[in-house]
Fold Amidase.
Amino acid sequence: MDQPRPETTPLWQWSAADLARGIADRTITSREAVTSCLERIEAVNPVLNALVEVSAEEALASADVADQMVAHGRHLGPLHGVPVSIKDNTDEVGHPNTGGVVAHADHVATTDAASTAALRRAGAVLVGRSNVPAFSFRWVTDNELHGRTLNPWDADRTPGGSSGGAAAAVASGMVPVAHGNDIGGSIRYPSFACGLTGLRPTTGRLASSGTDGMDFPLSATLFAVEGPLARCNEDLRLAYAAMLGADSRDAFQAHGATPTPARRPRRIGLVRSVGVADPTPEVDRALDDAAAALRDGGYTVEDVEVPLLAEAYRLWYLLAIEEIRLIRPMMDALGGAGLRTAMDGVYAVAADWWGTAPSTEDYMMGYARRSSLITRLAGLMDGLPYLVMPVSTEQAFRQDADLTGHDESRRQAAAQWSQMAIPLLGFPALAAPTGTAGGLPVGVQVLGRRFDEAGLLDLGAVLEARLGTLTPVDVR
């Protein structure tokens, strides 16, 4: 659907960009914008359970400060006065960072994580914290502390994980943009499931400081990124810009890196399958629609095969899952029965390729192979700078389908091959909606060259100009 006209719609339906402009030129106030979103939260969050903590008084106080800054002619950041949510696995000073775990309900953060601090510096008003699966591990956003988040399109379908609460909040109009993070699809899949656009930046582009007092394994350091979810491309671009900036707590940040010019910048590869799982007819049509939109925008689109992505997908299950094995006893003890069952399925998938006890040599050679795959993909993308592919090979999974047995775990893993391949390689990717099928959203994913987020966002704008946006939606 078309973007709503700000002058005829309630403020919770405005884009973040329109809110920021209206606040800056004093057409509206931040307090009015925040109040409208809080009213929307009060109306729909009891149904969806997307935000597990709502900080109404704190948000209104921040909005008043934002309005005072406007009145005094102070410098304004890109999200000045705009309501935003923070994912409940990320530190926000004075608020519990629970990660959806009962035992962590009282883990109150004493500092802001790098991403939270960046959003504050950009002027964002933090209105609440979005739900996650326990330990942010499943494709379903459910936990024993806060309960289940529903997809605003269909309560029987997952809103995705692990940024499922963020996606449901944005899609239903609670906030125009939300913070997320992604180690294996946690920005891109919820965006896809809820009809949003989401950006997984290049590893190292946006600062990440994790959780205060915790040491993270190498895979989490190299595969996980922070990033935004939004209803439209302009807001995604704005939120990404707001999250830029160096932070000394990130040992691997490379925020100033830029790509060399592509040899054929208007050439795009279309990857329908890598031999793991073929897209359903609905997803295949989404790929066709995206290809047609890009051709209409002046790009050359051609079907290509990139089998190294299948190898990267399998390799993720060695490097990430073996490191999680070290903390699995703690996750089993604290995460609840659903998480234990889901993890059993994930380890069954990993064992199909790597056995039940991979060796230290397997692990070491896995990282060596990862470097080779990164180099090969970078070489391919010098002449083919963008690859369009499925986010998932099927539309949003049914709630708790991952708990029905190892065969279903294998099927879901195959459908999500791109969700694991891309984090392992560290390249940026954009999820973009293309329309609906059977009452559910559908979309595509665009893979870009490292540090070419600007190019990805430009392609997202081309897709949106021709295919439109899908949200906010009425809660169903």
